[in-house]
Structure formats: C-alpha cells, structure tokens
Amino acid sequence: MNSRKHYNVFCHICPVHCARRVTVENGRVVEVERDTESGYPSEWCTYVKAKIIKEVCSHPDRLRYPQKRIGTKGEGKWARISWEEALGTIADKLGEYKAKFGPESVALCLGEPKGLEFAFAQRFASVFGTPNVATPGAY
Questions:
Q1: pTM of the model
Q2: Contacts of 109 (CB under 8 A, 6+ apart)
Q3: Per-residue pLDDT tens for 18-75?
Q4: Where exactly are the structural domains of the chain?
Q5: Which of the four CATH numbers 1.20.58, 3.90.20, 2.20.25, 3.30.70 does domain 4-58 have?
Q6: Cα distance between the two ends of the chain
Q7: Tell me: the pLDDT tens digits for 5-21?
C-alpha cells in the first residue's frame, strides 16, 4: 500500500529555521520544497545543505539507534543497544568522571546550537556543575 503524506516543518540545518513542506512516502522522505503558504520565512533556505535533506534522512549509513563497541578500538565492531542502556551508560560514565575529577572536568562543546539546544546545554551544565559550555561564537 502506497502511503504518501505531506508535512509542514521547519528546517533545522541552520539557525534561520526556514519553513519546508516535506513529502513522505512509505516512511521515506521523497520531496522537500519551500513552504510558501505558512507565512514563515522560506526563501532563504536555498543553499546546498537544504537540497540534501532527503539524503540526510535516508542515507543507508545513517545511525538510527545507539550502538556500543564490542571489539577493540579501530576494529569497527559494534552492536545495537537499547536507548535505556545507552543513556544509563552515559549517566554512569559522567557520574564516574564527576566523582573522580570534579564537575569542571566535563565540557559541553556544541557546533552551532539552534533553537533551544543552547538553553538545554546550559541547563544540563548548570545542574551537573560545570561552567564549561563552548560554541563557535564563544571564541
């Protein structure tokens, strides 16, 4: 059964968040175009990154679930794990580092935070106890 649906979304590739109309068919993005009816900006989103959204969403090498290394580093051996295990492992490791080296030993480095990403990172850092949050704009 062919299932074709249209969604009005915002592009999150850059901070402008241009309005897009995405067509999904059988669970895959098949078309991305400007949303000219929403009233939100869409004309700026014409650069190359916006043109590869389909590939970003459906590339065969895209990670879609957490993985854990099962071999030695460099072997390229990975196993799928649950989100619960992944988040638990991260929480345990962060707790170990905090106890052993102090909260200031952890730094959050964000590429180009968009929307609420920076606020969430700052909040996490505050609760964890580290002042170390870095972005390209911080330099």
A1: 0.68
A2: 134, 135
A3: 788 889 998 888 888 888 787 776 666 655 666 677 787 788 888 999 999 999 999 9
A4: 4-58, 64-101, 103-139
A5: 2.20.25
A6: 53
A7: 999 888 777 767 778 88
138 backbone φψ class: left, alpha, beta (φ>0; ψ -120 to 50) = alpha
Query: Which residue type is seen at 109?
Result: C
Q: Two tokens at 77?
A: 């051996």
The one catalytic residue among 49, 51, 68, 77: 49
49 catalytic per annotation? yes
State whether the Cα torsion 79-84-87-90 is positive or negative.
negative
Q: 83-133: per-residue pLDDT in tens?
A: 999 999 999 999 999 999 999 999 999 987 776 888 999 999 999 999 999
The amino acid sitting at 20 is: R
